[in-house]
Structures are given as structure tokens and as C-alpha cells.
Write a structure and sequence with these properties.
single chain, mainly alpha, globular, binds adenosine-5'-diphosphate, binds nickel (II) ion
Length: 215
């Protein structure tokens, strides 16, 4: 199989893998990240093959979906082996998957250009209109409140603390989503993030105004 055929097969595998998800980690998220990451990769002259595989596989071993395979990236490795992806590429992709996710103040900047790109693409999908929709979908799936005016927002959480939060979805904007713009790695990422960030700020202002009965 050539690379294009492998990508097509992987896309089919990913569609099956995420078929049952309703918490914002679905096939459509993988496809948006894949497209955005490839677009940035072209701008940045990065290795498209690594970026494509890592973006398609970045959430198959996420702790929220498959905690038992998180450490060794079991699902991603199984799929790459199935389609005879080289050992060298498997290693690069696993390193990206390990570095990509948001973990409060323990978040890392990936040490490859390809990792930086996949991280930007993944984070772009967590902000803006789609990011807002995903956050409330996640909150609903995890029985979280929309908002709790009594809450105190924390932005200096360790990975473990961040993962154990049970806060409202509006709190999630302050604990993660509003921080992402300033964490972008690439020029294209920063540009897209600015627009999406502004839109989230507008949304939060409206939300407050309605909550307080000002409009
Ligand atoms: P990503 O897919 O960008 O790595 P995550 O795995 O952290 O992001 O989360 C997937 C989606 O669920 C994102 O849109 C994220 O904002 C949302 N999400 C994660 N944790 C929460 C939470 N505690 N409250 C609301 N939304 C959340
Ligand atoms: Ni993701």
C-alpha cells in the first residue's frame, strides 16, 4: 500500500474507532485536526506524512477514552503496525502523541516541528465556535453544570490536578480554553487562534450579561 492508501484506510479505522463518542472526541474532531494540521504543515514545510498520521491518531489513547493504553499508545501502535508504517515513523508519531495534550502547567512544547503543528491544530479545535460547542458537549456528557458563579478559577494546575477537576463548563474556559491562544507554536496557529479567542470572549461577555439579567 502506498501512503495515500494507508491514510485512507486509517481514516476508515478512525471513523469506526470513534463511532460511539458524544463528548467532543469524535471522528469529525480527528478530521478537522487532520485538515488543519496538514494546512499548517504545508505553510511550515513540515513532514506531511508524520503530521497526517499523528493528527489522525492523536486521541486514540487519550486518558479519557482509553486510559489502559495511554502510557504505551497501544491503539495508535496497533494501527500503525497493521499498515506497516516504519518503526522510525511510529516512534516519531508516539512522541508527538505523548507531548500534544494540555496538562495545565505541566503542558509541554513538542520538540519536533510536526508535533508543534499537531498541537496547534488540536488546540484550534478546542477554541472558537466549535470549541464552545465541544466544551458544552463534554460538560453534558460528564454531568457538569453550565456555570457556577461561586467557583474560583485555577490556571496553575498540575497535570494530576487538571485531570481531576469537576468544575463547570464556563470554568473550563478559564482553566484551559482562554490560555490556548498564547500557547500557539506556529504563525498560522497564532493567527487563527486570535480570531477564535476574540469570539470566545464575546460569547463569555454575552453569557455573563444574560446570567446577570443585564440583557
Ligand atoms: P483535545 O482534543 O483538544 O486534546 P481534550 O482531550 O482536553 O482536548 O478535550 C476534548 C474536548 O473536550 C475539548 O474541546 C475540551 O475543551 C473539552 N473538555 C475537556 N475537558 C473539559 C471540561 N472539564 N469541561 C468542558 N469541556 C472539556
Ligand atoms: Ni484532540
Amino acid at each position: 500500500m502506498n501512503r495515500m492508501e494507508i491514510e485512507k484506510e486509517l481514516i476508515r479505522e478512525i471513523r469506526e474507532f470513534f463511532a460511539a463518542d458524544s463528548s467532543g472526541h469524535d471522528y469529525d474532531h480527528m478530521m478537522r485536526v487532520y485538515r488543519t494540521a496538514r494546512m499548517i504543515a504545508e505553510e511550515e514545510h513540515a513532514d506531511l506524512w508524520t503530521v497526517s498520521l499523528a493528527s489522525l491518531l492523536h486521541d486514540t489513547d487519550d486518558y479519557k477514552i482509553s486510559p489502559e493504553t495511554e502510557e504505551e499508545h497501544g491503539n495508535a501502535v496497533r494501527l500503525m503496525k497493521k499498515y506497516n508504517v516504519s518503526e522510525e515513523t511510529q516512534k516519531k508519531v508516539c512522541r508527538i502523541i505523548a507531548q500534544v495534550s494540555f496538562s495545565g502547567k505541566d503542558s509541554v512544547v513538542p520538540d519536533s516541528l510536526e508535533g508543534k503543528i499537531v498541537q496547534d491544530a488540536d488546540r484550534l479545535d478546542a477554541i472558537g465556535a466549535i470549541g464552545i460547542a465541544r466544551a458544552f458537549a463534554y460538560g453534558g456528557a460528564h454531568h457538569r453544570k453550565l456555570y457556577d458563579p461561586e467557583e474560583i478559577y485555577r490556571t496553575d494546575l498540575s497535570k494530576e490536578e487538571y485531570r481531576s477537576l469537576q468544575s463547570s463548563t464556563i470554568a473550563h474556559f478559564h482553566e484551559k480554553l482562554l490560555l490556548l491562544r498564547d500557547m500557539m507554536n506556529t504563525k498560522t496557529g497564532r493567527m487563527l487562534a486570535q480570531h477564535r479567542h476574540d469570539f470566545m470572549e464575546m460569547f463569555l461577555d454575552e453569557f455573563d450579561a444574560e446570567w446577570e439579567g443585564r440583557i
